[in-house]
Design a protein that fits this description.
By secondary structure, the protein is of the alpha/beta class. It has helices spanning about 50-55, 85-95, 110-120, 150-160, 170-180, 190-205, 250-255, 275-290; strands at about 10-15, 20-25, 30-35, 60-65, 105-110, 125-130, 235-240, 260-265. This is Pimeloyl-ACP methyl ester carboxylesterase.
Protein backbone atom coordinates (compact mmCIF):
# COMPACT_ATOMS: atom_id res chain seq x y z
CA UNK A 1 0.00 0.00 0.00
CA UNK A 2 1.31 3.47 -0.85
CA UNK A 3 1.39 5.97 1.99
CA UNK A 4 0.23 9.36 0.80
CA UNK A 5 2.46 12.11 2.20
CA UNK A 6 1.11 15.55 2.90
CA UNK A 7 3.33 18.60 3.32
CA UNK A 8 2.41 20.99 6.08
CA UNK A 9 2.36 24.68 5.34
CA UNK A 10 5.64 26.45 6.02
CA UNK A 11 5.75 27.93 9.50
CA UNK A 12 8.11 30.05 11.54
CA UNK A 13 9.63 28.59 14.72
CA UNK A 14 11.46 30.65 17.31
CA UNK A 15 14.59 28.78 18.47
CA UNK A 16 15.74 31.52 20.80
CA UNK A 17 18.53 32.98 18.71
CA UNK A 18 16.64 33.10 15.42
CA UNK A 19 13.34 32.38 13.73
CA UNK A 20 13.59 29.45 11.34
CA UNK A 21 11.16 28.60 8.57
CA UNK A 22 10.21 24.92 8.70
CA UNK A 23 8.18 22.52 6.57
CA UNK A 24 7.35 18.90 7.33
CA UNK A 25 6.21 15.92 5.26
CA UNK A 26 4.62 12.64 6.24
CA UNK A 27 3.34 11.04 9.43
CA UNK A 28 4.71 12.61 12.65
CA UNK A 29 4.63 9.16 14.27
CA UNK A 30 7.16 7.81 11.78
CA UNK A 31 10.97 8.03 12.25
CA UNK A 32 12.00 11.68 11.96
CA UNK A 33 14.59 12.69 9.34
CA UNK A 34 15.90 16.26 9.61
CA UNK A 35 17.39 17.60 6.36
CA UNK A 36 20.23 20.11 6.82
CA UNK A 37 21.15 22.05 3.68
CA UNK A 38 24.52 23.19 2.41
CA UNK A 39 25.99 26.68 2.44
CA UNK A 40 23.86 29.44 0.90
CA UNK A 41 21.07 26.94 0.26
CA UNK A 42 17.52 27.20 1.51
CA UNK A 43 15.29 24.27 2.40
CA UNK A 44 14.26 24.13 -1.26
CA UNK A 45 17.61 22.55 -2.12
CA UNK A 46 15.99 19.37 -0.80
CA UNK A 47 13.62 18.85 -3.71
CA UNK A 48 9.89 18.58 -3.00
CA UNK A 49 9.80 15.24 -4.80
CA UNK A 50 12.67 13.85 -2.74
CA UNK A 51 10.99 14.89 0.52
CA UNK A 52 7.75 13.29 -0.61
CA UNK A 53 9.54 10.10 -1.68
CA UNK A 54 11.24 9.88 1.71
CA UNK A 55 7.91 10.49 3.48
CA UNK A 56 6.13 7.88 1.37
CA UNK A 57 8.79 5.39 2.44
CA UNK A 58 7.66 5.81 6.04
CA UNK A 59 9.49 8.86 7.45
CA UNK A 60 8.52 12.11 9.09
CA UNK A 61 10.63 14.52 7.02
CA UNK A 62 11.63 18.00 8.20
CA UNK A 63 13.39 20.60 6.09
CA UNK A 64 14.17 24.15 7.15
CA UNK A 65 15.79 27.40 6.10
CA UNK A 66 18.97 28.02 8.03
CA UNK A 67 19.85 31.57 9.02
CA UNK A 68 20.34 33.89 6.04
CA UNK A 69 18.40 31.67 3.66
CA UNK A 70 14.76 31.61 2.63
CA UNK A 71 12.36 33.08 5.15
CA UNK A 72 14.48 32.59 8.25
CA UNK A 73 16.22 35.33 10.24
CA UNK A 74 18.72 37.23 8.10
CA UNK A 75 21.73 39.34 9.02
CA UNK A 76 22.91 42.20 6.81
CA UNK A 77 24.91 40.96 3.79
CA UNK A 78 28.54 40.43 4.70
CA UNK A 79 27.91 40.71 8.45
CA UNK A 80 26.91 37.31 9.89
CA UNK A 81 26.44 37.35 13.66
CA UNK A 82 27.08 33.62 14.07
CA UNK A 83 29.55 30.84 13.26
CA UNK A 84 29.19 27.12 12.52
CA UNK A 85 28.72 26.11 16.21
CA UNK A 86 25.74 28.46 16.48
CA UNK A 87 24.12 26.84 13.44
CA UNK A 88 24.59 23.45 15.10
CA UNK A 89 23.06 24.75 18.34
CA UNK A 90 20.07 26.08 16.42
CA UNK A 91 19.59 22.63 14.87
CA UNK A 92 19.28 21.14 18.36
CA UNK A 93 16.98 23.98 19.44
CA UNK A 94 14.77 23.19 16.45
CA UNK A 95 14.47 19.58 17.63
CA UNK A 96 13.44 20.96 21.02
CA UNK A 97 10.81 23.22 19.47
CA UNK A 98 9.43 20.32 17.44
CA UNK A 99 9.40 18.14 20.58
CA UNK A 100 11.61 15.53 18.97
CA UNK A 101 13.79 13.70 21.49
CA UNK A 102 15.83 12.25 18.61
CA UNK A 103 16.03 12.42 14.84
CA UNK A 104 18.03 11.00 11.98
CA UNK A 105 20.12 13.90 10.63
CA UNK A 106 20.86 14.09 6.90
CA UNK A 107 23.37 16.85 6.12
CA UNK A 108 24.71 18.08 2.79
CA UNK A 109 28.16 19.77 2.54
CA UNK A 110 28.09 22.50 5.21
CA UNK A 111 25.05 20.66 6.53
CA UNK A 112 27.21 17.54 6.82
CA UNK A 113 29.60 19.58 8.96
CA UNK A 114 26.74 20.75 11.18
CA UNK A 115 25.56 17.14 11.42
CA UNK A 116 29.00 16.02 12.59
CA UNK A 117 29.00 18.71 15.28
CA UNK A 118 25.56 17.76 16.57
CA UNK A 119 26.56 14.08 16.70
CA UNK A 120 29.68 14.99 18.68
CA UNK A 121 28.14 17.46 21.11
CA UNK A 122 24.57 16.14 21.42
CA UNK A 123 24.68 12.39 20.65
CA UNK A 124 21.61 11.79 22.81
CA UNK A 125 19.54 13.75 20.23
CA UNK A 126 20.77 11.75 17.24
CA UNK A 127 19.32 8.43 16.07
CA UNK A 128 21.78 8.24 13.15
CA UNK A 129 23.59 10.54 10.78
CA UNK A 130 23.71 10.55 6.99
CA UNK A 131 26.45 12.64 5.41
CA UNK A 132 26.57 13.62 1.74
CA UNK A 133 29.04 15.98 0.07
CA UNK A 134 30.90 16.01 3.37
CA UNK A 135 34.51 16.23 4.47
CA UNK A 136 36.13 15.38 7.81
CA UNK A 137 35.87 18.30 10.19
CA UNK A 138 33.54 20.36 8.03
CA UNK A 139 34.01 22.60 5.01
CA UNK A 140 36.54 24.97 6.63
CA UNK A 141 40.32 24.56 6.13
CA UNK A 142 41.76 22.25 3.50
CA UNK A 143 43.79 19.52 5.19
CA UNK A 144 47.03 18.49 3.49
CA UNK A 145 46.17 14.79 3.49
CA UNK A 146 42.85 15.28 1.69
CA UNK A 147 42.44 15.53 -2.10
CA UNK A 148 42.11 19.09 -3.31
CA UNK A 149 39.04 20.33 -5.19
CA UNK A 150 39.01 19.82 -8.94
CA UNK A 151 40.69 22.53 -11.05
CA UNK A 152 37.34 23.94 -12.17
CA UNK A 153 36.42 24.53 -8.52
CA UNK A 154 39.81 25.94 -7.60
CA UNK A 155 39.44 28.37 -10.49
CA UNK A 156 36.22 29.73 -9.01
CA UNK A 157 38.04 30.30 -5.71
CA UNK A 158 40.94 32.05 -7.41
CA UNK A 159 38.76 34.48 -9.35
CA UNK A 160 36.83 37.11 -7.47
CA UNK A 161 33.22 36.41 -8.33
CA UNK A 162 31.21 39.54 -9.08
CA UNK A 163 27.88 39.54 -7.32
CA UNK A 164 24.76 40.33 -9.32
CA UNK A 165 22.45 43.25 -8.81
CA UNK A 166 20.35 41.61 -6.10
CA UNK A 167 17.29 43.62 -7.13
CA UNK A 168 17.42 42.19 -10.66
CA UNK A 169 15.45 38.95 -10.45
CA UNK A 170 16.55 37.52 -13.79
CA UNK A 171 20.21 38.36 -13.19
CA UNK A 172 20.18 36.74 -9.76
CA UNK A 173 18.47 33.62 -11.08
CA UNK A 174 21.13 33.27 -13.80
CA UNK A 175 23.86 33.84 -11.21
CA UNK A 176 22.47 31.17 -8.88
CA UNK A 177 22.28 28.65 -11.72
CA UNK A 178 25.78 29.29 -13.04
CA UNK A 179 27.25 29.20 -9.53
CA UNK A 180 26.06 25.60 -9.18
CA UNK A 181 26.91 24.32 -12.66
CA UNK A 182 30.56 23.34 -11.90
CA UNK A 183 29.47 21.10 -9.02
CA UNK A 184 27.36 18.69 -11.08
CA UNK A 185 28.41 15.08 -11.60
CA UNK A 186 28.93 13.20 -14.83
CA UNK A 187 25.19 12.52 -15.08
CA UNK A 188 24.85 16.15 -16.13
CA UNK A 189 23.40 19.43 -14.95
CA UNK A 190 19.59 19.63 -14.87
CA UNK A 191 18.97 23.14 -16.23
CA UNK A 192 15.20 22.91 -15.94
CA UNK A 193 15.31 21.80 -12.31
CA UNK A 194 17.82 24.50 -11.42
CA UNK A 195 15.80 27.21 -13.16
CA UNK A 196 12.79 26.22 -11.07
CA UNK A 197 14.84 26.08 -7.87
CA UNK A 198 16.61 29.39 -8.46
CA UNK A 199 13.33 31.13 -9.32
CA UNK A 200 11.59 29.88 -6.19
CA UNK A 201 14.66 30.66 -4.08
CA UNK A 202 14.62 34.29 -5.21
CA UNK A 203 10.87 34.73 -4.85
CA UNK A 204 10.64 33.53 -1.24
CA UNK A 205 13.87 35.02 0.14
CA UNK A 206 13.66 37.64 2.89
CA UNK A 207 17.14 38.92 1.95
CA UNK A 208 18.55 37.12 -1.06
CA UNK A 209 21.90 38.94 -0.77
CA UNK A 210 22.42 37.53 2.74
CA UNK A 211 22.90 33.97 1.51
CA UNK A 212 26.62 34.58 0.97
CA UNK A 213 27.03 35.17 4.72
CA UNK A 214 27.62 31.43 5.05
CA UNK A 215 30.88 31.86 3.16
CA UNK A 216 32.24 34.58 5.45
CA UNK A 217 31.12 33.28 8.84
CA UNK A 218 33.59 31.69 11.24
CA UNK A 219 34.07 27.92 11.34
CA UNK A 220 34.68 27.73 15.08
CA UNK A 221 37.11 25.23 16.63
CA UNK A 222 38.22 22.40 14.32
CA UNK A 223 36.76 19.02 15.19
CA UNK A 224 38.33 16.51 12.82
CA UNK A 225 40.43 15.01 15.63
CA UNK A 226 37.21 14.30 17.55
CA UNK A 227 35.52 12.20 14.87
CA UNK A 228 36.81 8.99 16.43
CA UNK A 229 34.48 9.63 19.36
CA UNK A 230 31.28 9.64 17.25
CA UNK A 231 29.12 6.84 18.63
CA UNK A 232 25.99 7.05 16.49
CA UNK A 233 25.24 4.96 13.38
CA UNK A 234 26.71 6.73 10.36
CA UNK A 235 26.06 6.42 6.64
CA UNK A 236 28.29 8.32 4.21
CA UNK A 237 26.71 8.85 0.78
CA UNK A 238 29.36 10.48 -1.38
CA UNK A 239 29.14 11.54 -4.99
CA UNK A 240 31.62 9.53 -7.01
CA UNK A 241 32.15 12.67 -9.13
CA UNK A 242 32.24 15.22 -6.28
CA UNK A 243 34.56 17.99 -7.57
CA UNK A 244 34.60 19.91 -4.29
CA UNK A 245 35.58 17.09 -1.92
CA UNK A 246 36.80 14.33 -4.26
CA UNK A 247 37.05 11.07 -2.38
CA UNK A 248 36.54 12.71 1.02
CA UNK A 249 33.71 10.33 1.83
CA UNK A 250 36.25 7.52 2.21
CA UNK A 251 38.14 9.57 4.80
CA UNK A 252 34.92 10.30 6.70
CA UNK A 253 33.99 6.63 6.73
CA UNK A 254 37.43 5.66 8.05
CA UNK A 255 37.50 8.31 10.76
CA UNK A 256 33.98 7.74 12.15
CA UNK A 257 33.79 4.35 13.91
CA UNK A 258 31.50 1.90 12.17
CA UNK A 259 30.55 4.27 9.35
CA UNK A 260 29.42 2.77 6.07
CA UNK A 261 30.42 4.36 2.76
CA UNK A 262 28.35 4.25 -0.42
CA UNK A 263 29.67 6.06 -3.48
CA UNK A 264 26.90 7.35 -5.74
CA UNK A 265 27.78 6.98 -9.43
CA UNK A 266 27.22 10.06 -11.57
CA UNK A 267 26.62 12.32 -8.56
CA UNK A 268 28.68 15.45 -7.94
CA UNK A 269 28.68 17.88 -5.02
CA UNK A 270 24.91 18.18 -4.80
CA UNK A 271 21.87 17.06 -2.88
CA UNK A 272 20.64 13.74 -4.27
CA UNK A 273 19.60 14.26 -7.90
CA UNK A 274 16.43 12.62 -9.11
CA UNK A 275 18.08 9.56 -10.65
CA UNK A 276 19.60 8.69 -7.24
CA UNK A 277 16.45 9.12 -5.14
CA UNK A 278 15.42 5.45 -5.10
CA UNK A 279 18.86 4.32 -3.97
CA UNK A 280 19.21 7.02 -1.32
CA UNK A 281 15.71 6.52 0.10
CA UNK A 282 16.22 2.75 0.25
CA UNK A 283 19.55 3.09 2.06
CA UNK A 284 18.07 5.51 4.60
CA UNK A 285 15.05 3.28 5.18
CA UNK A 286 17.30 0.29 5.74
CA UNK A 287 18.85 2.10 8.70
CA UNK A 288 15.83 3.90 10.15
CA UNK A 289 13.54 0.89 10.19
CA UNK A 290 10.90 2.81 8.25
Amino acid sequence: MTIKSNSTAERMIDVGTAELCVETFGDPDRPAVLLIAGAASSMLSWADGFCERLANAGHHVIRYDQRDTGRSTCDPPGKPSYAMPELASETVALLDALRLPKAHLFGMSMGAGITQLVALDHPERVASIILTGGTPGGPGPFYDDLPRPAPVIMATFAEEQAEPDWTDREAVIRWLIEAERPYAGSAGFDDAAWLDLASRTYDRAVSIASLNNHFVMGDGPEWRDRLGSVRVPTLVLHGADDPMFPGHGAFLAREIPGAELINLAGVGHETPPRFAWDRVVAEIGRRTGA
